[in-house]
């Protein structure tokens, strides 16, 4: 009798863990539509702040904070993933984010200032991206 209860409890636990694992794996990938909304909201914040004259750091902190809080998954997006979400939102809707494309390089370690004259006379492959690994910290 005791062995039957233990076996039944073990089967119930395994079933429950299986359901929980399946649910967690389908919830985490920042829902297809929800992820797009989150990236778009982050892009709105980042682009608005940059266009209004704020620097990269303060704009990034505000956008990343919004993305972390808006995420629906059990885990929060990494800073690198959040930067990609912002970039995708801007590239997918350039008319919705005018003047923002010029600031996207700063998300990936590029020039953080105004890019108007920064690229004149510089070969595209002249300077490798430095500090990309330590750029974003939690």
Biggest β-sheet: count, sense, barrel? none
- For the termini, the CA-CA separation is 52 Å
Radius of gyration from CA coordinates: 21 Å
Q: Which percent range fits the helix content?
A: 55-70%
Fold and architecture overview:
This protein is mainly α and 138 residues long. The protein has a domain of 83 residues. It has five helices and no strands.
List the helices and strands and how they pair.
Layout: H1 2-27, H2 32-51, H3 56-70, H4 79-92, H5 132-135
Concise description?
The protein has 138 residues and is an all-alpha fold. It has a domain of 83 residues.
Name a few traits of the molecule:
138 residues; mainly alpha
